[in-house]
Fold these 4 entries.
Entry 1:
Amino acid sequence: MLTGSELLAKVKELGDVSKSELVRECGYVSTKKDGTERLNFTAFYEALLGAKGVSLSSDSAGRGKGGRSLSYVATVQGNGNLLVGKAYTAMLDLKPGDEFEIKLGRKQIKLVPLGSTEEE
């Protein structure tokens, strides 16, 4: 399987061929148990994006499920609730049932885990 600059060069060299032929010629082919050929389109396109500098790593720090960057901004909902999303709780390794003390300051809210000091 070609990667990096070799992959980009091969794609350019092949020019206007079918997508199947492109994947096959770049080596993204495997054999099924029954002996038939399987074209690995996903692996090919991930390698192609990687060669072009687009990272699809599984590092989800700072990202929600959809891959967007976290804004670190919350909005009060119409019912008055303030929602802290799953991406933030995952970053802090919070689990269902974790409890916090709510500390109100001037125009701020602090959530302090029960049993810890505020400096932690």
Entry 2:
Amino acid sequence: MSGVHLNRKLVLEAPVRIADGAGGHSETWQVQGTLWAQIKAGTGRESAGQFLTVSSVPYKIIVRAAPDGAPSRPKPEQRFREGNRVFRILAVSEFDAAAHYLTCHAREEVSA
């Protein structure tokens, strides 16, 4: 499909709960695979909290489609990582009518 340039290598991660032995749990991230993607930034915004300022930018991340149930198919609540940058996946939809690509609606949040 013309217009899609998969030129960014992203790591797809899923949350995993690990029991802490005292009745609680901690959360860690497990790698699901590496995907090539195109990243398009939206309009950012900034909000002030009590002790810090949070800047938030929405992104559309386009990746090749994978079959339903495949570990490499992105899902909401998962995230993409590119070095120190983290993109939390909010929703996933088909990019094209032939379902060759997926659009992952994501948000990068950075504390300052």
Entry 3:
Amino acid sequence: MVTVVGVRFKKAGKIYYFDPDIIEVKSNDFVIVETARGIEFGHVVLGPRDIHKEEIVAPLKKVLRIAEDEDFNTHRENRNKAKEAMTTCQKKIKEHGLDMRLVDVEFTFDNNKVIFYFTADGRVDFRDLVKDLAAIFKTRIELRQIGVRDEAKMIGGIGSCGKQVCCTQFLGEFNPVSIKMAKEQSLSLNPTKISGLCGRLMCCLKYEHEAYEELLTKIPQIGAIVKTEKGKGTVIDSYTLLERVKVKVKLEDGTDDIIQFQIDDVEATGEVDLRYVKGNDDNHHHGSEDLENLDD
């Protein structure tokens, strides 16, 4: 076991582990740490805890010190410089006529590098732009192309639920989301209704996915012939979260009736009425192959 603390460098950013060494680090402290790209200012979101060595990406860097007043001032200055650099870079992009959209600018804590995040439809030849920026800022320049999900995370906005998008609030990493999740939750497959601000499938489709998968293993599929207290019938609809099915039952007098039952009150016979079975691609109990893997 190894003692570590979890540090974030951006709000809702990925959590990285560091060795607190002999420093008494507590949750919610601000610290100065050594990273692969230099010295950085971070926020401790996970207090000291013991984890298995297998969970660590070696080498484990150390916490250098608890942030002091001078460090906070440096961090604020870097953020102000980043705003100015944003304007400067946008002017240079326009001058060079580059087809790219600048999303964010970040100065490393030690001012060893300036990172410009951008999106573009394809590859961009920004060599001349880098030369101009290096001459202006007199430090190392990195232009990093990001995906649309990362762009939405950096910019933020209001989702269709009326709240701030999850990726900006608390999602440290993006999980793969597929059209199968929408199908299993019986959601509309209209792209405009299940896509987020980034244009990809909404991350929240993942939240209830495991619960739906577990429930769907218990619920008879559409077209299944089941035994009920009223007699044999065919499942014509289902309500996953309610754990109920709608069954067309053949009554003793020869007439049909449609009745809802709890899934515990019906017993599958193994038979299927093909008149009620949709194609495999549309069967919401058996989702089709993933439309796309949205893990950027």
Entry 4:
Amino acid sequence: MTSTSTKTRDPAATREAILKAAREEFGQHGLAGARVDRIANKACVNKERIYAHFGNKQKLFDITLTHALEQVRDIVDDSANTDPAAFVARVFEFNRHNPHLTRMLMWEALQSPTDGINDEAARRAYYAERVKTLTAGTAQPDSAKLLLTLIGLGAWPHAFPALTSLIIGEHGPLTPENTLNELRDFLVEFTRRATN
């Protein structure tokens, strides 16, 4: 497959294809190791089109991360459900099936400029709202710490799969279905006991 498409594309579909390819590339290689030509190839677009749509590679990384965070919000959030255990289950399952977001957040911590967090104000506002939802609008002094802990419980096994496998994979690498289902259920029950 070549990096240019011979058929006319819908601009929104082209943008989505670029963001999907960029999420995979940045998740795998980080900002420094990612290659725009590989993103162009995966998205079936010309490399110049990526620069025209997004600017430089740093801006593409920032926009891709923001887009991925919007997707996790759409899937993980349930404003009607304030159960911390159910939240951990949703975070666990999202990360299980979408490992690129956690990897991108790890790359952001390692490689992004230290003079500010990408889309900081919007991200802070989202987490503040998530704390309110989780605590049914009656946030306590440690509610934000609770949210960070719950996200960690759901994301950690997927952020560090080798460590997870070494600790709970008795006979080698984890078998995705049985062992991960058991781990999710353990984390849900652990959260339920810890928060009641």
